Structures are given as C-alpha cells and as structure tokens.
Amino acid sequence: MTKLTGKQKRFLRSQAHHQKPIFQVGKGGVNENLIKQVIDALEARELIKISVLQNCMDDKHEVAEAVGKGAKAEIVQVIGNTIVLYKESKENKSIELP
C-alpha cells in the first residue's frame, strides 16, 4: 500500500469532516472483532471515523496504529478522540484521490 501524500490526506480529511464515527473503542480496546468490522466498513465506505472513548486504556495513537495495521488501512488523522482511516475499496471504489 502506498503512503498518502499531504495533499491526499487534506482531501480525505475534508471528505471525512461531515461523517460521524461509526465505531467506538472503549475498555475492551482493539480486538479481532473490531478489526473485522472495520475491514468490512472500509470495504463499503473507504473512509471511516472511529471514536476513542474516555474509558479506553490505550493511547489513541496506539489504537490508531493497531486498527490501521490490522485492517491494512492508512491513518489519515488522529484529532481529539477521533481516528480517521482510509483504505481503497476493491469493490466499491467511490473516492478519487487527487
């Protein structure tokens, strides 16, 4: 997978801006089930937000790394307690990167 350029990340951040987080990482942290759901969601949408809850024991950057690695996705941004992930879809490609 190629690394995203700054321009592509800016573009993806603007695309993600209006989205609501569809997953929450809490006390349980990152597990197989979460990774599997994230992979499915990325295949369907390409760009998703994950919210890291206050009760999560792991650092949000560690959570982002773990989910990104597990789902083989690019971390677009970690802002506040929200992680934005991108992965090009095989079946439902809808986002054209600049």
UniProtKB/TrEMBL annotation:
Residues 2-98 form the CRM domain. The keyword Acetylation does not apply. InterPro entries: RNA-binding_CRM (IPR001890), RNA-binding_domain (IPR051925), RNA-binding_YhbY (IPR017924), YhbY-like_sf (IPR035920). Coiled coil: none annotated. PROSITE patterns: CRM. SMART domains: CRS1_YhbY (SM01103). Keywords: RNA-binding. This is Ribosome assembly RNA-binding protein YhbY. It comes from Thalassorhabdus alkalitolerans. The gene is yhbY.
